[in-house]
Specification:
single chain, 195 residues, mainly alpha, Arp2/3 complex 21 kDa subunit ARPC3, globular
């Protein structure tokens, strides 16, 4: 059972991470790799998932998903707007599920490996972008298959998805998260010392 002080620290920590997620995602909406925006907000999502568990990771990911939906509806994401015009419901579901899933599964990965701190953090840092991109890929291969085939213009749609949509963006997110793993560990150590 958490003490009152621990509950307040957790609430404040989560609120700070929510603010960081919102700022990073709003900032990232101006940066594009191909048709997509890199997910800089995965770092605070990973930190929240590690510090406070899978449920907090999912909450932070869900907030990230809400910000993505807002940018899609406002027309800031051209390809996502095409997805939205084709199927608004599943576009929203995809945005929310991939964010919440990234936070939740990254928290689970850390929880399973927390005794081996560096391995747990590194695994959480890999799981978040893999989940985020993987759920997007599943949506593109199922619900948005027609759109994928139109975009591929006669090419193999799976290869097109991997090269044109996922390739650069996913690699950027993966490398970004892995490179920042030591930074995440230092942040976590500093936070735990002040607790």
């Amino acid at each position: 059972m958490l003490s009152r002080n621990s509950k307040v620290q957790r609430l404040v920590g989560t609120a700070i991470l929510v603010a960081i997620v919102i700022v990073l995602q709003a900032f990232a909406s101006g940066i594009h790799f191909g048709p997509f925006t890199p997910t800089l907000a995965l770092i605070p999502i990973i930190i929240g998932a590690i510090l406070y568990g899978p449920a907090t990771g999912a909450l932070l990911g869900l907030i990230f998903g809400i910000i993505v939906v807002i940018t899609v509806v406002s027309g800031l994401e051209p390809f996502s707007m095409i997805m939205f015009n084709q199927n608004p419901f599943f576009t929203v579901v995809t945005c929310l599920a991939k964010g919440a899933g990234a936070g939740f599964f990254s928290g689970l990965a850390y929880k399973g490996l927390e005794k081996r701190k560096f391995v747990g953090v590194a695994t959480a840092a890999v799981v978040a972008p893999v989940t985020n991109t993987g759920l997007f890929a599943i949506a593109m291969l199922t619900v948005f298959r027609n759109l994928l085939e139109e975009s591929a213009a006669g090419q193999n749609p799976v290869v097109f998805l991997l090269v044109a949509f996922i390739g650069v963006n996913f690699l950027f997110e993966l490398v970004f998260d892995i490179v920042l793993t030591p930074v995440i560990i230092k942040i976590l150590s500093a936070i735990k010392k002040t607790s």
